[in-house]
Model the fold of this input.
Amino acid sequence: MTTVFDELLSGFKSFLGRFDQQPLRGFIDGVDWSMRPRRLEPSGLPCLSHLSRAARIAGAEAAPLARFLDDRCHDFRWGQTYTSVDFGKRFIDNYGWLEVFGTRGHFENRKMAGGFLILGPNIAYPDHHHVAEEIYIPLTGGTEWRMGEGGYRRREAGEIIHHTSDMNHAMRTGAEPMLALYLWRGGPLAARSTVTGTVGRELT
Ligand SMILES: [Fe+2]
Done:
């Protein structure tokens, strides 16, 4: 019987199958998608309220996956790495992730983690870095991303954003929420990021 978790993993995999660019191919070629499911209790977060808007503004190719996440979000275990002590309550109420597979997600994988990140509107996720190499593919456009010492650049849905090991990166949303797919490999897959920036002035 196909479960909602199987649908989650197959939706994740088939969305990635649309891309043939490096470095994404190097990340996912050789991934064994027959991962063992892990029994996890569902757990919601305030940021799930942004999923319906994210699904409406998602890029055409990402929209079915975003709608699936919105429809079935309460079946999944959403998490947060930070607390309100780190970035304040407003950030915490507008931030969360879902690990589809990895060392703690709905499917077991010790080599790579993959999932989704939600940020509400007008949220700044300050400079941070981690050992793991990371790819993001935003499912919604309009968020500004910065990496290394570069400036903020607006990224559209379906762009591939690659952060090498320990590279600083940050993002800030505008009037719309962000939903993005992520992949991590090559480091402790549940590690907390090292934060180097401050929240500073949030966009208004
Ligand atoms: Fe990151």
Q: What stands out?
A: Residues 130, 134, 163, 169, 193 surround fe (ii) ion (CB under 6 Å).
